[in-house]
Write a structure and sequence with these properties.
Structural class: alpha+beta
Distance between the termini: 86 Å
CATH class of the largest domain: Alpha Beta
CATH architecture of the largest domain: 2-Layer Sandwich
Amino acid sequence: MTNVPTSVLRTLSWAMLVAAGFLVATALTDDVPSRGLLTAGVACGAACIVMRHAIRARDLRMIETALDAMAEGRLPARFERPQSGQTFRVSRALGRAQRDVSTTISLLTVERDELQAILEALGNGLIALDREQRIRSANRIAEQLLGLTGDYRGRLLQQATRQPDLSRFVGEAFAANGHLSAEIRLEGVETLVMQAASEPLPGSDGRIDGLLVVLDDITRLKRLESMRTDFAANVSHELRTPITNIKGYVETLQEIGYDDPPQVSHFIEIIHRNTRRLSMLVEDLLSLASLDQLDSRTGLEFAELEIGQVLGDVQGELGDTARAKQVALSVSCNPGIRVFANRTLVHQAVANLVSNAIKYSPTGSSVEVEGRLAGDVVEIEVIDNGPGIPAKHLPRIFERFYRVDKARSRELGGTGLGLALVKHIALAHGGAVDAQSVVGKGSRFTIRLPLADAGKSLLPEAP
């Protein structure tokens, strides 16, 4: 009977009831009551009662199953609804409840998805903790910052991620009733500086039920702040040295007079050398300031030029310097390679790299300059056999005034801005520059510039 549809059982029960009534009525209307008909009628009536009870029991089981499904969140819970009686009214109320709950869940799901999208778009790491410092949830950025993987929800923060500063901050935040702001560091492949802030998550009893921690990555801002501080200090130092020298020798000349021509000539040569250094420094600073402008490309004159000609000009300009140091300077470039660029700036960038290579190359070594196509860009490489650059310095050598060997760099007359200028010239043309080096084996600097057609497309439109 369990596999028979309820509608069939209901039809049979009504048929049994009609049959029972008919048999009993027939038995009672006969002149001689038939015991067999009466017994059959009673049996049909009893079967009807049993069948109706089975139907009601089945209806109740279906309602119970539907309620269990609702409790487990499986909506809508499908079931065959009774046609009449109390179970019909219960099932109808259950159906309405299902629809209301399903609508509410749909709205909550939409709101949850919207909230999750907002949290992911904030750009900050968010972590929700309970009062035992177990992780309730975290957004994608927090997972990346803290290295959270797998099923981390429900685990202690200290177990899920090994970050002493963060653990200390969370403990202090709970002690401060949830409100705290501090700068912390996250250790990993790269140390990250975070501005951490916390807000309490209140519970139903009014006590702090948990903590919301917001992590804002300020590593780049800190690095820029450090660079600005270093830049100001370095500019002051670089300017002070030649100015002090000039001032000192002028005062000396005023004191000793001009009666000793060889000494006066020597002093004037020192003053001239420091004046030239000061002029170079100011010119480099002005060039960098110009290239730093957001619309610097609009103030530059661009034209198609052949890279081979630029490299040849650099070789002609620095050839005597290389020969004086007995350094072999060679240039090779595939013919016909053209870029859309400012000739003066490209020449300056290549000349800076070649000049540095000659300065730092030992006597009797060589400097190679190569120009070639590499896909849709032009690569200009400057290769030397100098002392090389330690790996720890490579990420910073294009910063202003950054020197690997400060004493030797100043001795050779560098301003500390040459590589920074090369980088900004490449960026102004929509290109890039990088360096590779092995200590004791030399260095390889590469400038990448877009081809002529691609370079034209990078220019801003005329107003």
